[in-house]
Amino acid sequence: MPELPEVETVKSTLQERLPGLTICGVDLYLPKIIQTPSPEEFCRQVAGKTFLDVGRRGKYLLISLSRGLMLVVHLRMTGQLVYTVTDESRSKYTHLIFHLNNGHQLRFADMRQFGRFWLVPEADIQAVKGMKSLGVEPLGSEFTLNFLEKELKTRRTRLKPLLLDQTFIAGLGNIYVDEALHRAGLHPLRPANTLNPREVGALFRAIREVLEEGIAGRGTSVRDYVDGTGQAGTFQEKLRVYRRSGRPCIQCGKPIERLRIGGRSAYFCPGCQR
Q1: Minimal CA–CA distance to 25: which of 40, 10, 6, 44?
Q2: pLDDT > 70 in the chain, percent
Q3: Domain segments of the chain as ranges
Q4: Does pTM top 0.85 for this prediction?
Q5: pLDDT tens by residue, 43-102
Q6: Which of 51, 113, 163, 171 has the fewest Cβ atoms within 10 Å of its own Cβ atom?
Q7: What architecture (CATH level 2) is domain 4-127?
C-alpha cells in the first residue's frame, strides 16, 4: 500500500499539473470505487469543475475542486492516479478517467480494486470514512519528541502494530515502520511503554528521517506504486530491512529475519534490534 512518502509524491506531481484544469467529462468503468455520492451523481457533479489544489492527509489525497467540492482519494494497495496524454496506452485495470480541457487525462487504475473515491463538500471532509480518526502527521508540528514520549508511556502495545495504527500516527505503513525501527535499533515486538528516553529519541528521529528520505527518493516501488506521472520511485534501492529476509544487515552483517505480527510481516535484524 502506498504510504506517506508515496502519497506525498503523487500529491506533489499532480499539484504541478492539475490546478487550473477543468474536467470536461468522466468515464467510469467500475462504479464500486465511488463511495459517495452515487456513481451517476459523482460523474454529473465533477463534470465542469476546475481543479484548485492537491493536498494530503495521512494516506488520503485531498483534491480541491471549484464550487467548494473536495475529491478524496485513497489508493489502498495498488491504486495509481496518473496524469497522462490521451493517446497513452490504457491499462486493463483502468477504472476511472477524467477528461481534461487541455487534452490530457487523469486516470485511476487499480489491479486489486480496493481504491476508493469520495466527493463531498469541503466542509464535510471529516465525514469521509477514516478521516476524523486520523492521528498526527509525523512530519507536522504536532509530532514532537514530547508527544511521542508521553504517548508511548501509556501504551503496552507492541511497537510494530502501534506505529501502523493510523489513529496514532497517520501515514506510516509496513515499509517505513520496519525501516524506522531498524534505524532506531528497536525490535518490532518491543512493548511501547518499555522504551527509555534515549530510545524514544532514536525512534522519533528515525521516523522523520526515513519519511524525509522516502519523499526525497520519490517513494518506494516494490510492486505497483508509481507517482502522478507514472514514474517509479527509487527509495527501494535504500531499504535496509524491508523484504530483505535472509540477506545480510548492512550494519552488523547478520541475516535479516521476517516474522508475522497480527497478520502483518515485520522485517528486522536480530543483531541490531534485540
Answers
A1: 44
A2: 100
A3: 4-127, 145-268
A4: yes
A5: 999 999 999 999 999 999 999 999 999 999 999 999 999 999 999 999 999 999 999 999
A6: 113
A7: Alpha-Beta Barrel (3.20)
Q: Please, what is the Cα angle at 86 between 54 and 102, to 5 degrees?
A: 55
- What is the mean predicted confidence (pLDDT) over 263-269? 95
CATH number of 145-268: 1.10.8.50
